[in-house]
Structures are given as C-alpha cells and as structure tokens.
Amino acid sequence: MPEEKEITATRKRHGQGEKHQRQARIILAGNPNVGKSVIFGLLTGKYVTVSNYPGTTVEVSQGHTHTGNRKALIIDSPGVNSLIPMSEDEKVTRDMLLRERPDSVVLVADSKNLKRAMMLLIQIAEMGLPCILDLNMEDEARTRGIEIDYKKLQTLLGVEVIVTVAPERKGIQKLKESLEKSLVPLIRTHYGDMIEKSVEQLSMLLPEAGISKRSIALMILAGDESLADWLFNNLQAESIRDIEEIRDQAQSKTRESFSHTIGHIRIKQAEEIATSVQSITPPATGILAKSLNQITLHPVLGIPVLLVTILGFYGFVGKLGAGILVDFFENIIFARYLNPVIEKTVTLLIPVSFVRDMFVGQYGIFTMALTYAIGIILPITTTFFIAFGILEDSGYLPRIAVLSNRVFRLIGLNGKAVLPMVLGLGCGTMATMTTRILETKRERIIATFLIALTIPCSAQLGVIFGMLSTLSVRVALWWAGCLVFVLIFSGYLASRIVPGEKPDFFMEIPPLRLPKMGNIFLKTLSRVEWYLKEAVPLFLAGTFILFLLDKIRILDRIEHTASPLVVTFLGLPAKATEAFLMGFLRRDYGAAGMFTLQRQGLLNENQVIVSIVTLTLFVPCLASFFMMVKERGIKTAGTMMAIITPFALSIGGLLNFILNRLF
To answer: What pTM was estimated for this model as a whole?
Structure first.
C-alpha cells in the first residue's frame, strides 16, 4: 500500500546514509507530568537555552548531547495529550514535529499509563517520524503491580524501548546510546473505507512537510483548525477550497463526526497494544496504607489530615526555620561574628562616608541586604523547600488538590488550577507560567489574577510563618481566614465577570509513599541554588535603592507622604512604608522588613495581622509581574495590578478598623 511504502522509505531516509550530514535534531515528546523535563536535563546537562517558540508565549528548552560521534540538539516540547491541538502547548508540539524535521522523537511515557502514551505513538507513527519509546517511572509501575513485557512491546512497535527511572538516573546512559537507533514505528491504523479514501484524496493536494501527508490529512478530517495558517502559507487558495470541499462532502455522508471516529479508533488500538504487553497484579497493600489512601481523599475525614499536615508544616518552618535557625544565623553568625568584622574592615579601608555607608550603614549591602537575604530568609526558605519536597515526594499534593476542588468550582476554575495555585506557594513566577496547562483563556486569566493576589510565595510564606510562630493562634487564624475569604470572594467575582464555561476536573492520584530523602535533598538543593541566583541579587538591588532614597532624603518624604495611608488608614508605623516599597521588588523582602519591625517590638498583634494580610495581597514581585505581562499581555497584566494594589490596601484598612473595634 502507498502508506506502507512511505513508512519504508522514511525508515531508509533516516538510516545511516544521512545521519552524519548535519547535527541531529531530537525532540522530546510526551504526556504532561511524565518526567520529560528531568530526562531532558539528564540528557543535556545543566547548560541549556530557554526561549519562546516563534509566534507564541510558550517557552521551549534546548540543549546539546552527543550521539555516538555526532553532536545532537535536544528540544524539550510541551507536554501533550494529543497531536490534534486543543491548547497552545499542544499546537507548539505539533508545529515542532511539522516544521522542525526531527531526526528522532523520544517519546517519554509514564509506565503506569501505557495506553495514554500509545495514543501519541500511533500519531507519531502516522507522521512517519523515527522514534524511541522511553518508559519512565518504571519503579512506580512495579509498585502498583504493573508488569510490561518490554521485548514484546519493542517487537510489536518496531522501535527501541528503553526503561528509565529518571530521579535515580537508571537507564539514562542506555537511552543516550539508543538515540542513533530510532526507527519509524511499524504500527498501522485503519480508519474505515470512507476516511481512508478521503485521506488519499487529500494527500494528493497537500505539499511536502516534515511529517507525512497522511497525518496532515487525518488532522484536517478531524477538524484541526490550527492548521489553517500552515495551509494558507503552503497552498494556493484553490487547493485549500478543494481540501475543504473533500472534507465537507465526506463528513456529510455520516452522522458521526470524523473527529470522534478517529479518536475512538486510536483509543481502541492503544488499549489493544497496552493490554497485549502488560499484566496488572494489584499489590498487597497493608491495612494502614489502604486506610491512609482512603482517608486522605475523603471529603470529610481528609480535612483533619490536611489540618494536621498544615500544623506540621507550620511547626517545621515556623519553629525550626524562622525560630531556631534564624536566631542562630542572625544573632550569632551575623551579629556576633560577621558584621562586626566586616564593619571594622570597611571602616579601615574606605574613608569616604558615602561609600562606607553603602556597605555597612543603615541600608548597607552587608548590614542589611546580606543579613536579610542569608541570615533571615535563607534558613526559612530552606526549611520550607524541605517540607514542600516531602509533600511532593509523598504523593500528598494531588490529594490537597482533590480536597480543595469543590472550593475552586465555586470560582469557575478547572481542578487543574489547583496545581498552579500550589506551585504558587513555591514561586509565583513559576505558577503564572504553569497556568498554560489550563484549557481556556478565561481559566488562565482568573488563575493568574488569584495567584498574584492571594498566593504567597515560599520565601514570603516562610517569613510570615516566622512572625506567626511567636504570636497567639488568633493571629494565624485571622491571616488565613482573610486570605481564604479574599480568594473565594475575588474568584467568585472574577468568574462572573470573565465569560466562559466551567470545565471538568480530571486528575490522576498517585499512591501515598514514603518520601525518598535523596529526591528531597536534590530538589531542595536546586531550589536553594535558584534562590541564591535569582533572589539575592534583587535583595542587593532593593537595598541599594533604599540607600539612595535615604541619602537624597526622598525616603523621608515618601514616608511622610504615605503616612496618612500607612499610619492612619492601616494603623502601622511609618517605617512599614519601607517594607511596602521593597514589596515591589520582592514580596519576601517586604515580609522580611515587617518581620524585623515585629522583632524590634514595633508591631502589636493587630498590626501584625494587618501588615501580613496587606503585604500578602499586595502587588506581586517584579519578576512575577513581568511573567504576567509575558503570559497575559501588558493590558491584562496592567489591569490586574491596577485592581490588586488598591484592593489590598482597602482590605488592610477595613481589617484595621474591625480589629480596633473588636480588640
């Protein structure tokens, strides 16, 4: 048949004859959350480039590795569930395959969900692209009692099948060695006489591309509107009209849409492949493990478990990080040893008072910036990263998402939005970027707005925990209660203002497992490295700005001008103005300023509540704002900022009024 000849020709075309003519281009593809980015990092090493894919806001990572004697470019594509795009991420991945002419596609699959990966492999086979199948997370599959006959699967597909466990680097070297052995999969899918006839007719009208004409024809029949620009740029108007006429005439002869038929046949074939090579033996689960899995997902019993988890988190970060460790670093390491030595050295070496004050003055780089960044924030963020890593590695985070899903449905969001929200507790910039997983523009706008308004990042949250750890439970309850109220209230209003439908919620729940300390250590180390590289320079810049404002006497004027707002309306000391100024650079730096005021005895309990609520709701940090502009556009990001700033101050003023009347 013509299609079989095309596959054979493609396999030959990608054989040894052409492989040494140019640098190999290898695309990593796969479903979301299969460990693809980890595989990419292990293949390419540390130094990679990240840039937007042309014409989109979707970031794509590129790096290099070696395949035999040849250098290869590895491109990490966004995670997809189909190559008939339903989102911008899926369109980017499809366009990569369509336009990049890759020498190989490494399909990274979750060994626990082979059927889902086979859906993609069927489409890659139809594209005529050489492929390697990487079955990742093999250890988790075994834990669930899933056994896969890898040799049978390799024979059935006609491609290399590699088994990996990315966090342990298992199978990575073998995967590297197999990059030169990619072949076009042998599997063939028949969609019925009517669709197959239409595919042949369309293929005769289509131009040559990086993928087979058959696959493009199937996309057209499935109603892929995202191909319109590509067709317009590669075909005459008459040919496009002929293509539309063939599609419409064929579709008019059947009640069932071609999209549904094609999808149904692919699902059935994927199930057949998966069933033929895997066996599932439910693992013998202990009574305790079964009970914990059930309780943590129960809509009522899961709430106490969540509260206990939060209290443990709070105790670890608030007591150990913000209490014991901060006292040790700030009062002993910096105050007793480092700062006195640095001050004496700078005083001896630098006679000019302006320069000397820049280093060791009230707003000095050493006495303020590094003391804040290393002595106060670093111990808190490190303990936060450790605790957050435990929640990730244990499989408990998806359970938090399920428990909070009902609340999120009230504000018109898909349950997937819980993931960016939870990631926002790590970094708001990262969370804003991950709103791409949401399917509609409406969801992405609402989620971005709520992350910017109500979700404190890890460093800020850690400092706030430190403040709360020395105060009564009342303060923590007021702060948390205000955030939950604002989240629901503002989300509810946003869901009514931004048009669109409420999406469905689907999420795979992994089993609870004991966290691996090696994984937690590596994650914490990576995040601390990120903090030192990304946050500390902003601390230095922010301190230098304060120093200049103080020297030219603008800081006093700002404090005086803001006094009616900060002192009278919010009920805070005038020095709190500095913390709000620094909040524009980084939220955690602003929180550190409030933390210092509290430790100096300048804030009572009511003022602590007002300050941390206002600062949490205050404008996002500079990096997050830039990401908002990048993802949502300058107009939408500017509108969000214009709403968030007065809203946060209004909530703070209202809270100050209520607390002063009640207590």
So the answer is: 0.58
